[in-house]
Amino acid sequence: MMIARRKYLIVNADDFGISPGVNRGIIEAHERGIVTSTSFMARWPAAVEAAEYARANPQFGVGLHIDLSEWICRDGNWEPLYEVVSLDDPTAVRDEIYRQLDRFRQLLGRDPDHIDSHQHAHRKEPVLSVAKEIAQQLQVPLRHFSSIRYCGEFYGQGGVGEPYPELISPNALINIIRNLGDDATELCCHPARGADLQTMYLHERETELASLCDPRVRQAIKEAGVQLCTFSSLPST
């Protein structure tokens, strides 16, 4: 007789701290929806209020969202919206990442329970080596480089920003949940309440929020036998 393996799901909201609207959306998706975890951007003014919420809600998982740049596509061409340091300068990259880690600790009074990065910058050098170093020091998962499966399917744009609202509908989210593999998955999301930031991925955030809070989604989680958790509450295997 085969015994089904338990399915664990970490629903992680990126960009916590980048703006008040993003903060509101993430908090609402945690309190009313299925978001269990978030990735914190330490550089932005709204990071202070985000950290206040995290300190008051220690059950809410919080990781470090390494923030070095953001790229946007205009007329089919990719260009930087901002660049904190040059990714061609390994020393500057390392110093900035550790600066953001120190800021995380100062604001939250704890270490991150996972590591990832804005627009997946840590998948390439020189960011990758530093991200791996920090993850190993803290003994926490690094997105794409751990046993936790990453799911980025809940995203409302294509490769050059073309809109795909059907991918962030409640039905799309329910379909993802019903087709989760065994063991642990991180589902990435980007909810917000209000369009108060400059970014290529903007109006989709409110649509994501509505889907994450849809009662049918939580019912699908129950029916699929999925256990919601954070990176730190994930049972060791």
Description:
The protein is an alpha/beta fold. It has one domain: TIM Barrel (Alpha-Beta Barrel), CATH 3.20.20.370. Helices cover 34% and strands 21% of the residues. The chain is built from seven helices and nine strands; from the N terminus they run βαβαβββαβαβαβααβ. Strands 1, 2, 3, 6, 7, 8 and 9 form a seven-stranded parallel beta sheet that branches. It has a two-stranded antiparallel ribbon with strand order 4-5. Strand 1, helix 1 and strand 2 (37-40) form a beta-alpha-beta unit. Helix 1 packs parallel to helix 6 and helix 5 packs parallel to helix 7. The longest helix is centred in the middle third of the chain and has 19 residues, at 90-108. The chain is globular, with a radius of gyration of 17 Å.
Tell me briefly what this model is.
This protein has 237 residues and is α/β, with parallel strands linked by helices.
